[in-house]
Each structure stands twice: as C-alpha cells, then as structure tokens.
Amino acid sequence: MARNVASKSSTKKSGALAKTPSKEAEVLDRARPLVGQKAMEIQPYGTIVKLPIALSETACRQSVENLNQVLADTITLRDLYKKHHWQVAGHTFYQLHLLFDKHYEEQNELVDQIAERIQLLGGVSLAMAPDIAETTLIPRPPRGREEVPVQISRLLHAHEIILEEARSMAGQADESGDDGTNDLLVSDVVRTNELQVWFLSQHLVDVPLVRAD
Q1: Which domains does the chain have, with CATH numbers?
Q2: Which residues, other chains included, contact 31 with Cβ-Cβ below 8 Å and sequence gap of 6+?
Q3: Other residues' Cβ atoms within 10 Å of the Cβ of residue 89
Q4: How many CA atoms lie within 13 A of 1 on its CB side?
C-alpha cells in the first residue's frame, strides 16, 4: 500500500516537472515585447475628432490649421537658437551662449503648449523634422557658422514672422469664440517672443564698450 502511494506521488511529481517547461515558456511569452507591430493610423493628419469642449468643428479646424503653422515656425526658431548656442563666436560668446540656450528652453515650452492645444482641439500636431521643414516660413540657415550680428538678425527675422502670424491668428480665434487658443497666442506666444526680441535687439545697438563718444 505504501509503495502504491509512493509510486503515485512520484508519478504526480514527474508529471508536474514535465509540464514546467511549457508553463515557463508561457510565462516568458507574456514578458516578451511584441515588437515590429504595424497598423493603420488612428487619426490621419488634417482631420478633426470632435471633443466635448463647446466649440464648433469649424472653429477647431481653423485653430488647428493656424496653430500647426505657428508650431512649425516655433520649432524652427527653437532649433535655430540651439544652432547659434553651439556655434556662436567672439568676445560676447559667454553671454550669448547662455542667452541663446535660455531662449531655446523658453521656445521649447511653447512648442509643447502649442502641440497639446492642437491635440486638445481634436487635431493632429506636426512633429517630425521633414514635416516641419516643409511647413515653416522661416528661411533655412547655412550649415556652417555665422558672425554674431548675422545670427541675431536671423533670430529677429524669425521672431517677427511668428509675431505677425500669431497676432493675426489670435484675432481669428477671438472671432470664432476659441478663447483658449486666443489666450495661448497672446499670453504665451506673443509675449514670450516680444520679450526675446527686446533682449536680442539690444546686442545690435552700436554703442561704445569703454569710452563714451
């Protein structure tokens, strides 16, 4: 009787051991990343998914289109600041190296705010560099290094492009009842860019450094 019990116990153990590899494989399958997946887009660019935010689809569509233009130009200006941060030269290197990076960070915050506003309105924000390059109105700089006055002039031109479009688009948002977009453009985009223009433009004022005229 004892032998039979021992035999049955041994059989159960061997059966459990026999199942272990397959169970282990099953567990590992659950932990294995499912790479290489592909599917259709859940929302094509240029479309609007209506959200319950008490705005008409027409108003959302207009704001999304406008904001994507501002987004493309803001990303370009942001990257232009980083380029000049790396490549600046001359006796004002230290001051401008820090200033360009500070402005870069501030523009980077605007990029996130604008992109999230586009998504909030039910649109799709631009994101990838080739799409930004195709959309931006800011002229492309050369790959090489430029003198400081040229760098600053490029930045000021880019700021002016953004300010001009932001003011116009803020008016359109106001007329369509999109207060959120109007506030973003006026309170954040316009005011940030105006302040940065002031800081930059003073570096192009031709005044004596040591002896007064």
Answers
A1: 57-204 (1.20.1260.10)
A2: none
A3: 13
A4: 0
